[in-house]
């Protein structure tokens, strides 16, 4: 898929999903974007639809050459059972006829394990002092001039910030309380920043689910900011493309790789009864499980950091199991982190 082809399909997806709220839509298209969105609302809001994206059509597990807008569903039902099934094609103004490919992925879930690790480095299982919020992974460390010592640990907000509304100053444990961690013995830091999450019944207004914490001062808890043999940070977004091999360093899965399926995924997640929609996610073949949320994602070829693992879908009969990660630049900007920590920092 060429950049020009993806740009055209992204424009069509913006018009369908967000109407005239599409940030990249030309002004001349905004009067018709709302109408396009309204006409598609019924089938886009069917109960099984979980998200959208862009990619090549798949037939019986085989990738075809036809470029499509992807509709990700938790389960497929015969068309006669749905009041408003997704069309196979749709005519979008200024774009033309666009093909639709419905892909069954199962239910997307957040993947928020846990042995004692000292020093505390990438892939360590971390969490809150409250065992109700489970465990996720430490992405690694970043440089934040507003934090005491200038260094912060990074992970998902649903891991260390109580699904988003966690308070600055909340204690972070390693291992987490879920795995026997106690604040008196296993405190590794305090929540520093939390990227706000917008709750909504539909739409995809959010870019990230992420938070940072300041390590315990005084060096009482040894940390390891080393990212290993990884490439320079540079501009990771330029290297994200379909069929690219990526890998995570997760608390549950360790080092495990997958292949990118969609670099423009939009997905809704359930946060203990509340829904939050996210855009700009990257979907790949399954490489994660529960406990990997927050994990560092890298390019297998260049070892360049490209993202933070957020969640995935379990798949099942007739479904494609997937993993989903947030773009690294969005994570860093949302937390005010200017770069990743290096061994010399």
Written overview of the protein:
By secondary structure, the chain is mainly β. The chain has 3 domains: 3-104, no CATH class; 112-227, Thrombin, subunit H (Beta Barrel), CATH 2.40.10; 236-335, Trypsin-like serine proteases (Thrombin, subunit H, Beta Barrel). The protein contains 5 helices and 19 strands. The protein has helices spanning 3-18, 30-44, 157-160, 183-186, 328-335; strands at residues 49-59, 62-73, 89-92, 96-104, 108-110, 125-128, 136-137, 140-143, 151-155, 171-173, 187-194, 211-215, 245-250, 254-271, 274-285, 296-299, 305-313, 322-327, 339-340. An 8-stranded antiparallel beta sheet has the order 7-6-10-11-12-9-8-19. A 6-stranded antiparallel barrel has the order 13-14-15-18-17-16. A hairpin with a 2-residue loop joins strand 14 and strand 15 (274-285). Helix 1 packs across helix 2. The chain is elongated, with a radius of gyration of 20 Å.
């Amino acid at each position: 898929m060429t950049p020009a082809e993806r740009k055209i399909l992204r424009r069509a997806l913006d018009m369908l999903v967000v109407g005239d709220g599409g940030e990249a839509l030309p002004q001349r298209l905004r009067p018709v974007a709302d109408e396009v969105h309204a006409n598609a609302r019924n089938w886009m809001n069917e109960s099984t639809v979980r998200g959208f994206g862009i990619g090549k059509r798949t037939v019986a597990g085989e990738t075809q050459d036809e470029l499509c807008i992807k509709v990700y569903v938790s389960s497929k039902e015969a068309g006669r059972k749905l009041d408003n099934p997704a069309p196979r094609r749709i005519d979008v103004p200024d774009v033309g006829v666009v093909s639709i490919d419905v892909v069954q992925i199962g239910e997307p879930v957040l993947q928020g394990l846990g042995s004692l690790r000292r020093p505390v480095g990438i892939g360590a299982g971390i969490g809150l002092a409250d065992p109700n919020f489970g465990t996720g992974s430490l992405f690694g460390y970043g440089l934040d001039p507003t934090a005491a010592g200038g260094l912060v640990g990074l992970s998902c907000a649903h891991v260390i910030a109580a699904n988003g509304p966690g308070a600055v100053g909340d204690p972070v444990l390693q291992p987490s309380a879920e795995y026997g961690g106690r604040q008196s013995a296993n405190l590794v830091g305090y929540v520093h920043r939390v990227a706000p999450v917008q709750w909504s019944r539909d739409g995809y207004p959010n870019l990230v689910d992420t938070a940072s914490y300041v390590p315990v001062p005084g060096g009482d808890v040894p940390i390891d900011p080393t990212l290993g043999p990884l490439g320079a940070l540079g501009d990771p977004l330029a290297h994200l493309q379909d069929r690219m091999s990526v890998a995570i360093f997760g608390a549950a899965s360790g080092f495990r790789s997958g292949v990118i399926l969609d670099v423009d995924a939009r997905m809704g997640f359930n946060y203990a009864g509340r829904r939050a929609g996210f855009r700009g996610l990257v979907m790949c073949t399954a490489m994660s499980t529960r406990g990997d949320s927050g994990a560092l994602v890298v390019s297998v070829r260049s070892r360049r950091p490209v993202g933070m693992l957020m969640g995935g879908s379990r798949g099942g009969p007739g479904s494609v199991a997937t993993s989903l990660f947030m773009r690294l630049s969005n994570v860093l900007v949302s937390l005010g982190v200017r770069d990743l920590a290096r061994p010399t920092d």
